Amino acid sequence: MSKTIAINAGSSSLKWQLYQMPEETVLAQGIIERIGLKDSISTVKFDGNKEVQVTDIPDHTMAVKILLNDLIHFNIISAYDEITGVGHRIVAGGEYFTDSVLVDDKVVEQVEELSALAPLHNPGAAAGIRAFRDILPDITSVCVFDNAYHMTMKKHTYMYPIPQKYYTDYKVRKYGAHGTSHKYVAQEAAKMLGRPLEELKIITAHIGNGVSITANYHGESVDTSMGFTPLAGPMMGTRSGDVDPAIIPYLIERDPDLKDAADAVNMLNKQSGLGGVSGISSDMRDIEDGVQAKNPDAVLAYNMFVDRIKKYIGQYFAVLNGADALVFTAGMGENGPLVRQDVIEGMTWFGMELDPEKNVFGYRGDISTPDSKVKVLVISTDEELCIARDVERLRQK
């Protein structure tokens, strides 16, 4: 038996989950927030308990030390050597990685090199890797890449219609993201349908603060909505999703707040989407409250959000030439019955029909009617478990 910890590090946060393997039992989980800022917050959950401490945590190395000390302090483990593996979620692996890999110096350098593809994620992930290697240098350390699952896309799918030198010289192409989530829920969908994954065509809709849709053909990703970076695709919480690129120079010439392309991209990443359109919030719960109150900006943001998701799902019915199932997952996908209802209501021609008694908050499973030609499923994603499984797979090797 072994204990594996799954790490999801951001620029100022570190989420973690400790598993007993191979039983896949969650022993504890937590999050450290506001790393590098005053009054950092560390939260640990275990055995029905929740412990919170507020202190200044200057960097990811100190965050890892606090995490490990908490595991001993709360008697979750008795010694560090009980932890045999650590898996790190990496958003951007570029073309370097088509699968999870054991960490060495070169891998860490490549993760840092690819920060331009995921500036909000890769630098923090690299810091987390270095911190664990400093404190626990002898355990199995693994990088699990968000885009690795999408490396099965064909060239005509991942290439952009721009001069090929930008691919050959600068590796500009579609990479995708959320691959760990899409892979996991596609596998779970096959179990739920009682059919081999290798026979199925499944559209997976990861709808959280970040949104991505994937066309899964016989267990492989053949197309996905996120692109060169996680900015592309449907409208998201704070991200615009797809926009005409000519908007960027147009706005830079006219808006004094946008000094250059970096400012414009920052606006599209952090000030757009549901939050930017509504002027209320990037949280769908607040948007739905605004819709109920007949706030016109909330109504517009909601309708745009549903519209963009429908369009991508429709594209992937074409890519797959039909589908056996549509899977909703992640925050809004799992907990947003109204979003699911309004997406499906506009796509009944494809043969999808919801059961209103099952399309309710908290329900997991098949939410379609028995006569629905395409099954509609709600499946809770578990990226951390996927990470832990990959650590065990590579540790055994």
Automatic annotation (TrEMBL):
Q: What is its EC number?
A: 2.7.2.1
Residues that bind substrate = R89
**What GO molecular function terms would the record report?**
acetate kinase activity; ATP binding; magnesium ion binding
Which cofactor is recorded for it? Mg(2+); Mn(2+)
InterPro entries, per the entry: Ac/propionate_kinase, Aliphatic_acid_kin_short-chain, Aliphatic_acid_kinase_CS, ATPase_NBD
Q: Which chemical reaction does it catalyze?
A: acetate + ATP = acetyl phosphate + ADP
Name the principal localization, coarsely classed. Answer: cytoplasm
Q: Which residues bind Mg(2+)?
A: N8, E383
Q: How is its cofactor bound, per UniProt?
A: Mg(2+). Can also accept Mn(2+).
Q: Which SUPFAM superfamilies match?
A: Actin-like ATPase domain
Name the family: Belongs to the acetokinase family.
Q: To which pathway does this protein belong?
A: Metabolic intermediate biosynthesis; acetyl-CoA biosynthesis; acetyl-CoA from acetate: step 1/2
Residues binding ATP, per UniProt: K15, H206, I207, G208, N209, G210, D283, M284, R285, G331, M332, G333, E334, N335
Site, as annotated: Transition state stabilizer: H178, R239
- In the UniProt record, the signal sequence range is none
Keyword GTP-binding belongs to the record? no
Residues annotated as the enzyme's active site: D146 (proton donor/acceptor)
GO cellular component assignments: cytoplasm
Protein name (database record) = Acetate kinase
Which species is the source of this protein? Streptococcus pseudoporcinus LQ 940-04
Q: What does this protein do?
A: Catalyzes the formation of acetyl phosphate from acetate and ATP. Can also catalyze the reverse reaction.
* Quaternary structure (record): Homodimer.
Which keywords does this Swiss-Prot/TrEMBL entry list?
A: ATP-binding, Cytoplasm, Kinase, Magnesium, Metal-binding, Nucleotide-binding, Transferase
Q: Where in the cell is it found?
A: Cytoplasm
Biological process terms from the Gene Ontology for this record are: acetate metabolic process; acetyl-CoA biosynthetic process
